[in-house]
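Homework-ish question, so no full write-ups if that breaks the rules, but can someone show me the predicted structure for this set?
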Amino acid sequence: MVARERLAALRERFPTATLRAELPSDNRLYVHVPRELLRDVCRFIFRDQDARYVISIGADDRPYSGMFLVAHDFAYDDDHILCSVLAAVPEADPTVPSITPVVPAAGWAEREFRDLVGIEPVGHSYPKRLILPDGWPEGVHPLRKDVPWNHMPDDYDEDAVYPFGDPPEGCTVIPFGPFHPTLDEPAHFRLYVDGEVVRGCEYRGFMVHRGIEKLAESVMGYDDIPFLAERICGICGCVHSVAYCQAVESATGIRPPERAEYIRTVMLEIERLHSHLLWVGLACHIVGFDTLFMQSFRIREPIMWIAERICGNRKTYGLCLVGGVRHDITAEVAEDLRGVLDTLEKEWTAAARAVSGDRNLMARTRGVGIADRQLVKEMGLVGPVARAAGVPRDVRRDHPYAAYDRVAMEVVTHDGCDVWSRVLVRTEEVFQSIRIIRQCLDRLEPGPLQTPISDELPVGRLGLSSVEAPRGESHHFLITGENNRPRRWRVRAPTYQNLQGVPAMIKDQRLADMTISLGSIDPCFSCTDRMETLDLRTGHVSIWTPEELATAGDSGRRR
Amino acid sequence: MIDAVVRSLANVLAVMALAPLLDGLMRKLVARIHSRQGPPITQSYVDLLKLLGKEDIESGEVPAAQRASAILALASVLTAACLTPMGLGVPLARYADGILLLYVLTLCAATTAFAGLAAGSPYSMVGVSREMMAVVVLEPLFAFAVLVGAVQSHTLRLQVLLDGSVYGGGGVTVSGILLLIVMVLGLQAYAQKQPFDTTEAETEIMEGPLAEYSGPKLALLRYAAMAKLVVYASLFIGLFAPWGADLAAVYAWPIHWLKVLAVVLGVALLATVHARIRIDQALGRYSALLAASLAALVLAVAGY
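A: Not a homework solution, just the prediction itself:
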């Protein structure tokens, strides 16, 4: 079914409502609905049409239309359609019916626009602060256009404490994070534990929120943002830069030259190779298997080296501009790349055999961190987590971009739904990436790297773009704007959805398995095995308050 | 008397001098298997010196107990060294027997837990509880080995026990072989290496009982751990591979230390090819080892 037919089905279901729509192509659909209908339309799309929830966006459109905007993005994966359901929200009454009751995956996204744009999702099951820091006053919404990007409210309260919920009956609280020597980034999980079984948890993250979207919308230009986007993530930066450029291209109808599309594909796959090898290594490290950890990194090293050959950097390639790329792959670099791939294929075959045959690794990961098909659907989980649950979702095939429509690849799936399956999916995807790069190199024809852009980009157009990052789908939503920059740019990294699935993955599981479950969606979190025995043997739980931590830090020092 | 003191001192000095070297060799071997260059083989000496020279931070709950436990850890291991044949016979053979050896070894194991308890941080406590669970199952393994030796040789005298006694009066027994297999695996756990490094699991509980230790105290605890591996390796050799120990000291001493080197490198090798198992899985395997060693004891009593 193409976008037109999906729209017809919507109009048939909601005959009385005015559904204005934009259909820039067969695989993009923008439907404008009255805000009262948001929940019904989203329920129809998500439940009856079985589309996948992607993300929700709130935008301040008052300077242009006098209204706020709310958009809910969905993907019809089998039809290759990305769809956005938009509703205008009057300034006087900034509320929308929450879709979380019918689309649980929208939980965070709706809390986010409540925080940042000040649009209240009415009927949200858990309308709590998500992103703004604890001391930030109510009523100041940083993504509104009348709030400057460097605004610091006067009544910011340094001493404010986040109001956590009460633990369920009979459960004790075990804090994990925000700082842990083996945790790369600050994040706080407040675990509710009964004996040694996790019954629930509350998450408080976004502690290093950098306001990148605000920065892009207020001070940067179209061609600066790819480099900002690249710095969203140290692992899959190229993904974000490509996704952003494609969102602009999709909004404005720019088509990059074919050679640029192939080069983007090659670099995205190089990035996936480095990320998957890094992840397998770190997973082994988490369970104490340092030999494979070190071997993964050794095998990975030539990939970093070839990336440096192509663009001068081991990571953060600086590859993309709107309408093209900045680095060419010359014939001799291509030859080197083929050599790297041959070695990699040989060495990874041996490593993959070691991984898939390791019984200790299996014992630590099998049946752990279960995310089944239903959870994947309800929480909108993506990437290796979905594929390890037997859901064959891969944006490279479902919503082809760059040159992915011209290469043959298989979507690797396993159906164990557990961490072990995620290990296997990632291990095997390495071979698919090698295959894709080889095909690209075979088909790379001489040609320009950049489509010339002579006019100013049109204003007020919508763009959607999805890119398969190593961890899953990265989705970018964009509205083009004045002054050579977008009005609104919303980034949804794969971890945004996958992290929302973690509470369900660790619920009713052993505390010891918490971190490898976490690690299985994203390599940044490590093991909290430590909590289990604490509770088991002594029944004693210590919670460190900031004051206690400070005291503990000082007490050891001789004065 | 003087002879016993001299030979004890010889053992203690040899352990103190060679343990860091063996540790360095292990690190080199592991690095090579990891495809790394690895530190120089003298690195462990340098590490200890560096730690000894650092500020003595007292961050735990009971600083005095922490100091005591660090000293006790090294002292108990070195005491055990005086009860262990290292190419010079058993130095304190006339003053000690198998029971005392078991006591001293249990003390060695308990000092880590004591150190963790004295530190009192949550990570230490987790490590301590893991350590205690492991000790409860692991220590009897060695006791069973000594018991089997005692049953076979009808004595608790150390110079007999630690001279291949598990095989009885010569030849190779079923119980001896069974114990040998048990102890090869047990050695990984005594040495706190993969797959049994649950107590100190760096990525899980950050060195567990040692989390609050730094500087000189950490140096002593590290030193004790290195020495402990050497002592256990020597006991292992005494029980299962004593051949050559009755030669003249000029030959017996180097032969013994070569055997220790082989055991230690074997431990490192096994560790590099294993992932860490979870504490509950580890306890399951320890229990299996315990059951096997119990079976060995029964077999030994039955005369096999």
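Now go work out the reasoning yourself. Hint: Residues 175 and 544 of chain A are 8 Å apart (CA to CA).
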